[in-house]
Write a structure and sequence with these properties.
Length: 452
Amino acid sequence: QDPDVLDTWYSSGLWPFSTLGWPEQTEDLANYYPTTVLETGYDIIFFWVARMIIMGLKCTGKVPFKYVYMHGLVRDETGRKMTKSLGNVLDPLDIVHEFGADALRFSLLTGGTPGNDMKLSMTRIESNRNFSNKIWNAARFVIMNLSDHQLTTSDSGCDIHYALPEAAGLGMADRWILSRLTALENEVTRLIDNWQLGEAGRQLYEFLWNEYCDWYIEASKVRLNEGTAAEAEATRQVLAYVLERSLRLLHPFMPFVTESIWQNLPGMAGAENGTPRALMVSRWPADTNRAEDAAEDGFSRIQEIVRGIRNARSEYDVAPGRWIAAQLAAGEYADVLAENKVLLISLARLDASALTIAAELPAPEKAATLSVAGVTVYLPLAGMVDLDAERTRLQKEIDELDKHLGRVSSKLENPGFVNKAPAEVVERERARMEEMQTKRTQLSERLADLAA
C-alpha cells in the first residue's frame, strides 16, 4: 500500500475546498467557497455529502453548500439498473456523438422528478434532439428575416437585448406571444426557484415548440408578407425579442445550441470593455410585464377555429393546398375575427373571396358544421369535396363497419363467450363495439350532411 494515497471517499470529502487551493487562502477559495447548491444522487448521501460537510466544518469552519439537490438513479428504458453484467449500460459519450450533448442534458433534466429514478430511452433522447433542431430551424427563419433590417437594441450595463416596438404597432399574434412569454418567464423562474427543473424544462419545450414555432412563426408570416412596412418591422422586432428571451431561459437546459444561436443573432455578438459578450453571462429575464388577457383570449379563439377547420379538412380528405370556403356565425366575436381574418385565411387556408364573418348567419345546405369557441363555422361542401364520390366513400365505410359490428355483437350476445372468456377480453370487445358505434354515428351524420 502507498501511504500517500487517500481513501476514495476521504479525498472526495475534501473536494469542495481542496480544489480551490486550500489550505492557502486563495482568491478562488474566497470567491467560490462556500457555494450554494450541490447536486447529487441519493445513493451517496452518507458516503460523500456527509463527509464533505464534516470535512468542511473541520477544515474551514463552514459548511460547503447551503442546499443539496438529490436526483434518482438513471435506469434503462425498462426500469432496470444499468450494470455491465446486464449489458444495458448507455455510454454518454456515444449518446453525445449521435444526438448531441444538449439532447442528453435536456433528457436527464426533464425525464424525471427530484429524488425519483428515471427511465432513460434513446427514443426520448432522439425526441429532444429533434427539439434542438426545431429551435435551430426557427432561429434560421428569424435571422433570415432580420438580415436586411436594423433592429432596435437596448443596452443595460454589460447586457444587451432587443427592445420592443410600441404596443400600438403590434398585431394580435404579436401581443399574444408577448403575453405568453411573460407567463413563461414568471413560471420558469418560479419552478427553478422551487427546484422543479424538469417541469421548467417541459414548460420551455411546450412554449418553444407549440406556441412560438408552430403558431407564432406561422402567424408572423402574414404581417411579414402582406402587412405594411411598419407592421412587418414590428413583427420582426417581436420575433427577435421573443427568441432571444427564450434562449436565455433555455440556456441552463441546452447551453450549446442556445449559445451558438445567440452569437449569430444580429447585434448580440461583440465585446464590452474588452470582454466578449456571451449568453452564458447574460442576465436572467425579469421585470417584464406584457401580459394581456384580451390578446390571449382573442388568439386562443382563432387557434380553436383553425384547429376545427383543419380537423374537418382532414376528415373530408381535402388536399392541403386547396383553399376552401367558410362562413362564421361569430356572435359577439364577429368584429375581432373580422379584424384578424387574414390570420384565419392563412392558417386555415380559406378562400378570401368565399369567407363570410358575421354575428348571425343562416345555416347553408350541404355544409359541415363546427361549433368551436363560441363560434359556429359552416364549411360548404360543394367545391370542397366531390359530393358523389364522398357519398359513395362514406356509405362504403359504413357498410364495412356494419359487418364488423355484426360480428362483435354476435360474439357479445353469445353466453358461451361472455361467461367463459377472460373478463379483460370481454371488456375489450365491448370497448371495441362502443368505439365502432361512435364512428358509425359520425359517418352517418356526415352522410346526412351530403344528402341530395
